[in-house]
Specification:
This protein is α/β, with parallel strands linked by helices and about 350 residues long. The chain has 12 helices and 9 strands. It is elongated. It starts with 5 loop residues before the first helix and ends in a 6-residue tail after the last strand.
């Protein structure tokens, strides 16, 4: 390998991260070398020989246990991740899943039962069919399991096979880390798509699983408070139906953020339909919502005059009848006074005399 000085490596890590622009979190040669080393240890050290659990502790009566299953395979390696993982090779991964299920059966034979299950990685969904088989077996072996949680990456939501997990997974944990395109590029997470595409994939997950949570990271080089706030705003409550409507009409995550200023889903729907019908840009959408949220200036009240003298009204009626007679309409007028009121009767013929 080419020799590189400490100063060269230090310079490789320097750089500014701006919105939409960034440098790699580590030099390319470091990442490539890391993958080569991981591949070497995968071939050399990852053995899947069956072992006998002679000293495995027996379950204690009255204790509640959670079943944790680790899937240590990733198709690519994230440079910041220190979890136990290997580069994906399908034949090794399938063999691993088979032995994982055998181990679950062995644990069941020892008397263990579990109230919940968590599947971590690596990338747990690297082989969807194998994961589905494993979850089905877990629920069969351990009927006390009430919740199954699974980790995954955002891209997998676009895989048609994701439906294999519907009804098996109660909580899907999605490793987003950030919606900012600059941060995604710097960390080489752009392999899972843009921030907008990641946002759309979360909407898909909400439609499939009862609970979805998102993992975010703050502390990447160049990640500002403003970037974090934008990320959090993106995660605020927009219903799956609204997200789907946004996606169908080619609207962006910035349109979605603008809608979040409206308090109710009914208001969000009303504005969204207006935005779609009038083809509003992000700036126009923000201005329209700002106008809706800005209360109108108070109207000046017209002065109200209260007339308490009844004679003024009676004179008005009399003048009106006089004008009708002058015009040839033979209107008849009757008046009757009681103790508390004056009764007026006006008879107007339908045809002029």
């Amino acid at each position: 390998m080419e020799e590189r000085s400490t100063e060269t490596i230090r310079n490789a890590y320097k750089g500014n991260v701006k919105h939409g622009k960034s440098e790699a979190i580590a030099p390319k040669w470091v990442l490539q070398s890391t993958e080569a080393v991981m591949q070497y240890y995968l071939d050399r050290d990852l053995t899947l020989d069956r072992c006998v659990l002679e000293k495995f502790p027996l379950p204690q009566e009255g204790h509640k246990y959670m079943l944790y299953a680790h899937i240590p395979f990733c198709k690519t390696l994230c440079s910041y991740c220190t979890f136990h993982r290997f580069l994906f090779k399908e034949h090794k991964a399938r063999e691993y899943f088979v032995n994982l299920r055998k181990e679950m059966e062995a644990v069941r034979a020892m008397g263990y039962d579990f109230t919940s299950m968590y599947v971590g990685g690596g990338t747990t969904t690297v082989l969807m069919d194998e994961l589905a088989k494993t979850l089905e077996l877990a629920k069969k072996l351990f009927p006390s399991i009430k919740e199954v949680s699974v980790e995954t990456d955002p891209q997998i939501m676009g895989d048609p096979q994701i439906h294999m997990l519907e009804g098996l997974v109660d909580r899907m944990s999605i490793g987003v880390q950030s919606f900012d395109d600059g941060i995604l590029k710097m960390t080489e997470r752009d392999k899972f798509g843009t921030g907008q595409e990641v946002f759309e994939n979360i909407a898909k997950a909400q439609e499939l699983f009862p609970i979805c949570n998102v993992d975010m990271i703050f502390g990447f080089r160049g990640q500002t408070d403003e970037i974090l706030h934008r990320d959090l705003e993106t995660l605020l409550k927009l219903s799956p139906r609204l997200l789907d409507r946004l996606r169908q009409n080619g609207l962006t995550e910035r349109h979605a953020r603008a809608l979040l200023r409206l308090e109710t889903e009914e208001q969000q729907w009303e504005v969204l339909e207006y935005v779609i019908d009038h083809h509003l840009t992000v700036a126009q959408t923000e201005a329209y919502i700002e106008a809706r949220l800005t209360p109108p200036p108070p109207r000046k009240k017209k002065p109200t005059f209260i007339l308490k003298d009844v004679r003024l009204f009676l004179n008005t009626v009399t003048k009106g009848l006089s004008m009708m007679k002058d015009a040839g309409v033979n209107a008849e007028y009757g008046r009757q006074e009681t103790e508390d009121a004056i009764l007026l009767t006006i008879k107007i013929p339908k045809a002029a005399s």
